[in-house]
Write a structure and sequence with these properties.
- The complex is a heterodimer of chains A (241) and B (407).
- Chain A is of the alpha/beta class and 241 residues long.
- Chain A has one domain: P-loop containing nucleotide triphosphate hydrolases (Rossmann fold).
- Helices cover 32% and strands 27% of the residues of chain A.
- In chain A, helix 4 crosses helix 5.
- The radius of gyration of chain A is 18 Å and the shape is globular.
- With 407 residues, chain B is of the alpha+beta class.
- Chain B has two domains: 185 residues, no CATH class; 179 residues, no CATH class.
- Helix content of chain B is 57%, strand content 15%.
- In chain B, helix 2 packs across helix 12 and helix 10 crosses helix 12.
- The longest helix of chain B has 44 residues.
- The chains are: A alpha/beta (241), B alpha+beta (407).
- Chains A and B meet through helix 2 and helix 3 of A and helix 1, helix 11, helix 12 and helix 14 of B.
């Protein structure tokens, strides 16, 4: 069973005054467990819309979306929240950490919403922070961390619920290229450990890390290709600290 | 997700938000503080009025009957009472001789005269003529010195017992006992001073009165005056029986034919409490309503600031929703924040109101009722929840995609 199965997904935005914009015009694709997929496309191609729908932040206008075999295209807000909480780990371009909370609390947050007990929550958050190499930064607030460290906190937050997919939206967009490469190396590690990763980006060299690249144009899938190992960008496996 | 975990998390978020916006939080809370202060003080004042009323009513004696021409409270046409025959001083003696259930009976007559002692003067005193039985008949035995004796009473001696306010006015720095005051020019020697009764019915208490033997009263101030007979039952249990007995004896004394209505009234303290109870309730309700308005205004302030807070934290709401916060969770978060703000305001209000209530106590003896402390806390919580609801609801139904995009 596929983790994600999209069938003929459309999304139409009402812009008022009888104007409608079709951001997605019949997108169908499947993503299997432990895939590493990059979704690419120029701005306005519908990739953000697609990401929002895959991430259960939004529902499609029409079409069928099965997540682990469950139809989520018609789910209500509360059930979508539950899916986002347990099954999806978001990593954003602008990190989107809570500025007033320290790293540990930021990582803990999804577990709070999942109803995990305080002791277990702290333990898991700490372990996950160690896993991304920030064990010693648990009590630093986001503004006391570098961009790369912030993104690691965000990745830890995405990982901590052990989600079915990690959905990263331009995760290196706000980082310098060296830090960006470190983050990409971390994603590679996570993929190697069995995680399913979906990367939304418009940068070709970031997409080159993926094993499969889906290109969108004008709300439709233009190409969907498997990248042979020889053409992938890889780093020497990084030892988890 | 467990409700209490949500509340706990909401509280943590709330305190962080309150701390990071100190001035704003203080100003917003001020509205609630003022509201709670005014409501609790009003309640304290009302409590004071009620206590004063109870104490004043108690000054009439729960077991004392006031037999006279006029009823204290009546819905009947006043002309029916006006045509009744006047009371006579002798009734007291006759009643005392015939009654078996009364411990004491005393007639009283009143007039208003100016008092003088050396250069001190008091114009508002009431002169009451009565007998030595008055102390026993009124139940007011809190006297420093003594009341006049049977002999002094029967002989119409120029002696008197004075109320506490009279003593304060005429003898600010002296012991009044043994001194001679002038009542409309006539000398009276002070034998005793009643303890202060206070209360709402100043004129009816002993405080502003001068008690003189009734014969002396008739000599100096004239005998054709309104007479009231005070009679005290032997015990509280016998009060109802005593009342029936008094009614029978008085009908006989005044020759009321059988079958006709009695042409006199037997008044009791109870009548006052029954009549003024509802009035004080209405006054309390109005007072609390008006002060409650200030709490309402405070609530609007909370609502306003919560709207600002929600807008400011749109991004945060987006983040929380993206990682799995449900609508209910967000709603609860902001409700808890509003409630926490109000609760803090309420507690500060109580802390301010308490010392102020001690000042009120100086003017109007009272104490902040414990129930109002509980009620104030509940009210501030309710104001928080009610005024926080709309902003919290707006936050809860935000679209996560839109919220995340907000800068």
């Amino acid at each position: 069973m596929s983790v994600i199965e999209l069938t003929n997904i459309t999304k139409v935005y009402d812009m008022g005054a009888a104007q409608q914009v079709a951001a997605l015009q019949g997108v169908s694709m499947k993503i299997e467990k432990n895939e590493y997929v990059a979704i690419m496309g120029p701005s306005g191609s519908g990739k953000s819309t697609l990401m929002n729908i895959i991430g259960c932040l939004d529902t499609p206008t029409s079409g069928l979306y099965l997540f682990n075999g469950v139809n989520v295209s018609e789910m209500d807000d509360n059930n979508l929240a539950r899916i986002r909480n347990k099954e999806i780990g978001f990593v954003f371009q602008t990190f989107n950490l809570l500025a007033r909370s320290d790293a540990l609390h930021n990582v803990e947050l999804p577990l709070i919403y999942a109803g995990v007990s305080a002791a277990e929550r702290k333990e898991r958050a700490r372990k996950t922070l160690e896993h991304v190499g920030l064990g010693d930064r648990a009590h630093h607030k986001p503004n006391e961390l570098s961009g790369g460290q912030r993104q690691r906190v965000a990745i830890a937050r995405a990982l901590v619920t052990r989600p079915s997919i990690i959905l990263a939206d331009e995760p290196t967009g706000n980082l310098d290229s060296r830090t960006g490469e470190e983050i990409m190396a971390l994603f590679e590690d996570l993929h190697a450990q069995g995680n399913t990763i979906i990367l939304v980006t418009h940068e070709a060299d970031i997409a080159e890390h993926a094993h499969r690249v889906v290109r969108l144009r004008d709300g439709k899938i233009e190409t969907d290709e498997h990248i042979p190992e020889a053409k992938r960008k890889t780093y020497a496996p990084r030892k988890a600290s | 997700m467990h409700f209490w975990t949500e509340v706990k998390e909401g509280l943590l978020i709330a305190f962080r938000a309150i701390r990071s916006n100190k001035i704003r939080s203080v100003l917003t809370t001020l509205g609630i503080v003022i509201g709670i202060v005014s409501v609790t003080l009003m309640a304290t004042a009302i409590e004071g009025v009620n206590r004063a009323f109870d104490r004043s009513a108690a000054a009439f004696g729960t077991d004392v009957m006031y037999i006279e021409k006029w009823p204290w409270v009546s819905n009947d046409d006043w002309s029916t009472f006006r045509n009744r025959r006047e009371f006579k001083v002798e009734y007291a003696n006759q009643l005392e001789r015939q009654a078996t259930l009364l411990s004491a009976v005393a007639p009283t007559m009143n007039t208003r005269r100016t008092l003088k002692y050396k250069d001190k003067e008091m114009e508002t005193a009431i002169i009451t003529g009565t007998t030595s039985s008055y102390i026993a008949a009124s139940g007011n035995s809190q006297i420093d010195g003594r009341f006049f004796s049977d002999e002094e009473s029967d002989g119409g001696r120029p002696v008197c017992a004075i109320g506490a306010v009279v003593a304060e006015n005429l003898f600010p720095n002296e012991d009044p006992i043994g001194k001679t005051i002038r009542v409309a020019g006539h000398p009276f020697t002070v034998l005793g001073v009643f303890e202060k009764q206070g209360g709402l019915f100043g004129e009816f208490t002993s405080d502003t009165r001068v008690y003189v033997p009734i014969h002396a009263f008739q000599n100096y101030f004239g005998g054709r005056r309104y007479v009231m007979v005070q009679a005290r039952a032997k015990s509280m249990n016998l009060l109802e029986d005593a009342k029936i007995e008094v009614e029978g004896i008085m009908r006989k004394i005044r020759n009321v034919p059988p079958g006709e209505k009695s042409d006199f009234s037997i008044n009791q303290q109870e009548l006052l409490t029954q009549t003024f109870g509802p009035i004080s309730l209405v006054i309390s309700a109005i007072g609390l309503f008006i002060t409650g308005l200030s709490l309402f205004v405070g609530g609007i302030g909370i609502m306003n600031i919560m709207f600002v807070s929600v807008t400011e934290r749109t991004k945060e709401i987006g983040i929380r929703k993206a990682i799995g916060a449900k609508r209910r969770t967000i709603l609860l978060q902001f409700l808890v924040e509003a409630a926490a703000l109000c609760l803090i305001g309420g507690l500060i209000g109580l802390l301010i109101a308490f010392p102020l209530s001690l000042i009120v106590d100086k003017v109007l003896p009272t104490v902040m009722p414990f129930s109002i402390v509980i009620i104030a806390i509940l009210i501030s919580l309710t104001v928080g929840v009610v005024s926080g609801f709309l902003p919290a609801y707006r936050a809860a139904k935000m679209d996560p995609v839109e919220a995340l995009r907000y800068e």
